[in-house]
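NADH dehydrogenase-like protein
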Amino acid sequence: MKRITIIGTGFAALSAARKLRQLDITAEITVVAPRAELIFLPSLIWIPSGKRRPEDLVVPLARFFSDNRIQFVAGEATGLEDNGRTVLTTTGKVANDGLIIACGGRFIKKLPGIEHAILPCEGIAAAEKIRERVGALKQGNIALGFAGNPNEPTAMRGGPMFEFLFGLDTQLRREGRREKINLTFFNPMPNPGNRLGARAVKRLLAEMDKRGINKQLGHKLVGFEADKVKTEGGEFAADLIIFMPGLTGNAWFDQTSLPRSPGGLIKADAQCRVEGLPAVYVVGDSGSFPGPDWMPKQAHMADLQGETAAANLLMELDGKIPDKTFRVELLCIVDSLDAGMLVRRTPDSEMSLPPLGLMHNAKSFFESWYLRKYR
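Tokens:
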């Protein structure tokens, strides 16, 4: 019987677990994570407006694990032994014949004054804080922006920031407060969101102009203060700063011999294998993969990588050569609380549709459909 350990309970981890069970009904699957729950991060954008409550986004996984005969170990990974055959955790050691690392990434918090900013994708508590701060603001300025990892072009997550930006604009207009609260979008790149494709960037910037959103683009960030954003091109007032920094690898990676990319992520090949370590795979935000520099760090991409890693790991454990590769595809709906812009990009094409109310409804439907697998 194959003993397989998965680190994490995010999109990539659960997709890998589901695929493993589909392909092998006898494998002994163990998931290691602090809590047996999935946080549906894409819907954090709806917490500030009240469209979603925190409890709507927390999915307990006990039933999913039971139905799929998956053992859960509550603990945090702290290291590896025996070339990955043993996972060290805060609650003990977990042995395996094959390992999939899917514990996500870590935000880079080196920018001076970053403690003055709210990092929304850190989780539900951050989104609740945005809701509280926005609700208490009578007038002033809200600044939203994102940056990347200078050593890892793909290690960023900018899409949600456009959604928070447009969603807050819609919310403030509904509440009759938009005229008293300015919105400013900032980014060190002159064409933010270029990983979505040139057409999408053009639409995003045009939407900002249409909504009267100020733009501060093309200047390197210097830091934050409690009431301002500072860039090499100058500074501007901000009573609330919402910021998404770039991603790097988790701190526990430093306690291992895992090969690392220049940006601190785990190096993998096109089959999601970790270089030099037999039967060790990495998926999602934890990994650095070959491919175009616009390859997204998003749930859809993580799902595709999770399924690929699961299939390849089983092939390797059966003595075969893993040969499956994941499809590189950026697919998202940039939501604005009442409409959505559908964006799709592949190595061969790119598509961007104008904001449509239908796409907002589609995003809500997808949330319900996706979570049905785990509820």
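Residues 3-106+247-317 form a domain with the FAD/NAD(P)-binding domain fold (CATH 3.50.50.60).
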